[in-house]
């Protein structure tokens, strides 16, 4: 196979751990023509707000934007499922010429009449930014007429990176917070931010906190409800998992409502346990919470440990490549893979910042490649050069791994299996083991030596 070259403009976003100084460039728009693995600003907003299951989500734009993000997450709901429907104003040429505000007004009012949502989010897409529809005033008008909150989400696809989409979603959520009564909220209470209930993960995490004696006021946005989010300003601590998407909201809540926040991860044994201990430490005045936490961790770890050891025996020495949305998840994955005896030869993210990449550099062994905002060719190059046995990524990375004869584990938001929590670590190990040890890879063209 011929050598794969890196585009000159991309060279400073890739770093190989070794002797050269660490000076990675990141947090910039994707290089034109590089075919980035990143999604657009609108998609960033859509994935954050999607799991609010009793809200209406209306995509103001051409039908493709809505189709592209239809049912985009494996986020489960314990009640309404309105979030799983994708609504679009289906803007066409005539609307581009004459404006789409009337169509937006009609679509919004009709959908509210039919579905009776608790709130509505209206996403602006690229074309709306170009034609200049006044989405905010349409939302205000409908809010007044229909008596439910209607939020414009300013997420025109071209106006930045996926991270700007997260920020637009947080801005919309922030307007919802503060609308509910908070008299029934315990002094030992938290909000879970950046947990999207993929495969029911939020339910696993909520159960841990409740067993510790902590009240969970709201999960943003997994299995999300408008009413719960509205009273989330009554919680005493914000616990932020997906920091790339939710730190902006946590900071805004700290400023306005004086709620402190901590960053955690629910992936892997160490980080899961640390998350629970960090929350327990916050409520020092109730030592029984820490006692219950220790007991919980002891029980959960001893339940999964024997099976993990079995998988580790087969996986020891295997090499993994990680390419995920937020770098914080990559930290946990490197630790989880170490527990399984594996090393990380490539670690990258769509939205990491300089501090994130410095942490990755410290965590990885010499020779490991760290990459910001990768494209398929770069991922292919390093999978081949490092002879990885496993690629961890999402739906866009899956075919890259399969075509190169590399095992794949879906750790993105489309998956249906919970990988968070202690039980999630066991699921992760099982999935990694199944794919890495599969005999099928020997038949892929790159690995087939039959002649
Ligand atoms: S918002 Fe723009 S970039 Fe995003 S899907 Fe729609 S057209 Fe494409």
Brief synopsis:
The protein has 451 residues and is α/β, with parallel strands linked by helices.
How would you sum up this structure, described in words?
- The chain has 17 helices and 14 strands.
- It is of the alpha/beta class.
- It folds into three domains: 128 residues, Rossmann fold; 108 residues, Nitrogenase molybdenum iron protein domain (Rossmann fold), CATH 3.40.50.1980; 100 residues, 3-Layer(aba) Sandwich (Rossmann fold), CATH 3.40.50.1980.
- The strands form three sheets. The protein has a six-stranded mixed β-sheet, sandwiched between helices.
- The longest helix is centred in the last third of the chain and has 29 residues.
- The two termini are 15 Å apart.
- The model has no long low-confidence stretch (mean pLDDT 95).
- The structure holds iron/sulfur cluster (SF4).
- Iron/sulfur cluster binds next to helix 1 and helix 2.
Pick out its properties.
single chain; 451 residues; alpha/beta; Rossmann fold; six-stranded mixed beta sheet; four-stranded parallel beta sheet; 17 helices; binds iron/sulfur cluster
Under the CATH scheme, which class of the largest domain? Answer: Alpha Beta
CATH homology group of the largest domain: Nitrogenase molybdenum iron protein domain
Overall mean pLDDT: 95
Give the N-terminus to C-terminus distance in angstroms.
Answer: 15 Å
CATH topology of the largest domain: Rossmann fold
Per CATH, the architecture of the largest domain is 3-Layer(aba) Sandwich
Rg to the nearest angstrom? 23 Å
